[in-house]
Amino acid sequence: QERVKNLSKFERETAFSERIKVQHKLFNLPSLPTTTIGSFPQTAELRAVRNAFKKGEIDKAKYESEIKKYIDDCVAFQESIGLDVLVHGEPERNDMVEYFGEQLKGYTFSKNGWVQSYGSRCVKPPLLFGDVSRPNPMTVDWTTYAQSKTKKIMKGMLTGPVTIMNWSFVRDDMPRSEVVKQLALCIYDEINDLQKAGIKIIQVDEAAFKEGYPLRKENIGDYESFAVNSFKLSVSCAEAKTQIHTHMCYSEFNDIIKTIEAMDADVISIETARSGNELLKIFKSVGYKQEVGPGVYDIHSPRVPSVSEIEEQIKALLEVLPKEQLWINPDCGLKTRKWEEVKPSLENMVKAVIASR
Fold first, then answer.
1. What torsion, rounded to 10 degrees, do the Cα atoms 272, 231, 206, 191 define?
2. Whole-number percent of the chain with pLDDT over 70
3. Quick one: 114 exposed, middle or buried, by C-beta within 10 A (0-12, 13-18, 19+)?
4. Residue 328 carries which DSSP code?
5. Which of 258, 295, 254 is nearest to 275 (CA)?
6. Burial of 145 (0-12, 13-18, 19+ CB in 10 A)
7. From CA 325, how far away is CA 332, in angstroms rounded?
8. Using alpha carbons only, how large is the chain's radius of gyration in Å?
9. Model confidence over 52-89: pLDDT tens digits?
């Protein structure tokens, strides 16, 4: 609370127009750079390893060696198909909020407090009961290990403060607008440690940003204000050369496009595979300047898209925004898919991009 009270810096020092020039020069990526949203398939074997470690059935050395093996395989696969910006696959993570809650002070967990997320997928939201702080780095070791396995850029993966709050059971003795600032400072510290460790691109996912919107119109302005400011606070330590990505689920942004613009992320990836280029037209209509990664195939289906199908999708995107402004990626994370679907889908995505360039 003391740290929140004494806050003076709420946004990055350099404007996007200047940052992006520095980043383009440093990264030297091809046009239509390819990446994924972060997670790779959570296999039964992987879940068994995490469970065994949690129960004390295997030691830390065995657990870490299994996680590293998964990361090695993930990195090797991404390099083999020619992706431009890689991820480590998140094998150590049970859930995008619970994983961070487990490492923060001020959180506790239920054993069976399951909540339906969608379909048959359930999550166990952590219980945020007190002041939140980050005793130690949460992702630096795994991300830097993955970076050591490739010369390509390895993207650091974090969950944003608004999503962590919206997908937790939150204390009710303090306004959410104050609670989220504490979470933002935890992510701020993590970003600072990642960039000091040499990680050049960091994605701060705000999957549940829109989910937290109040139902009453008169309350929306306040929510938007503190949600945008907490995101900006969390990334405000990022240097001009550190590229900040964010990812948002849902495919309806007409009503909040100005809010997304105000978040000032360098790159935003969004779900668009099922809406063609309609969503991008909204970005164009407001003169959106930042870069955009519209999903080119739907990960909610086991179906493998063909190369020509993805080429058509890219062609539709290029009718709306110039190639200099576009990234190419799947709609969302690949955690719930199987490797036999993921591998050919990503291979086809890269082939389609190469043809489109």
1. 110
2. 99
3. exposed
4. B
5. 295
6. middle
7. 19
8. 20
9. 999 999 999 999 999 999 999 999 999 999 999 999 99
Helix-strand-coil split of the chain, %, nearest 5: 45, 15, 40
Catalytic residues: 300
One-letter amino acid at 262 equals A
Q: What is the DSSP string of 158-202?
A: EE-HHHHHHTSEE-SSS-HHHHHHHHHHHHHHHHHHHHHTT--EE
- pTM attached to this predicted model: 0.95
d(CA 194, CA 142): 11
| 282: its two tokens | 């909204």
Q: Is 136 helix (H, G, I), strand (E, B) or coil?
A: coil
210, two tokens: 């829109």
Q: How many residues does the chain have?
A: 357
Residue 272: HSE in the Cβ half-sphere, 13 Å Cα cutoff:
28
Compute the distance between CA of residue 31 and CA of residue 327 in angstroms, rounded to an integer.
8
- The helix or strand, by DSSP H or E, that contains position 315, with its residue range, turns out to be helix 307-318
Residue 244 three-state SS = strand
Distance CA 260, CA 263 (A): 5
- Phi/psi at 255 (5° precision): -80, -15
Give the distance from CA 99 to its chain's centroid: 14
Cα separation, 70 vs 78, in Å, equals: 12
